[in-house]
Amino acid sequence: MTHRYDEPITCEVDRDERPTCFVWRGRRYRVNRVIEHWVSTREWWRRDSLHLGISTEIRLYRLAAESSHGRGVAEVSHDVDSDSWKIKRIWD
Questions:
Q1: Domain total in the chain
Q2: Which structural domain, as residue segments, surrounds residue 68?
Q3: pTM attached to this predicted model
Q4: Which end of the chain has the lower number of beta carbons within 10 A, N or C?
Q5: pLDDT tens for each residue of 60-75
């Protein structure tokens, strides 16, 4: 079953800027492996994004992760322009 979220997280990354762990709702998750990684664009169709020169790169990661409460798969996003991270989905 999958659950969708759009909540901020803090994330630590390795030299290649891939997530190694993240904290969500006060709980620390260790990343065991990156299952998938892709790049998307944020609202590329909006004129203000184009005219204002706003970066639209969003990096998404599907991760095998675990905490003291168990294991699961999480999808997180990284907005490169604002350097902000969010949890997007959890599979349990």
A1: 1
A2: 2-91
A3: 0.85
A4: N
A5: 999 999 999 999 999 9
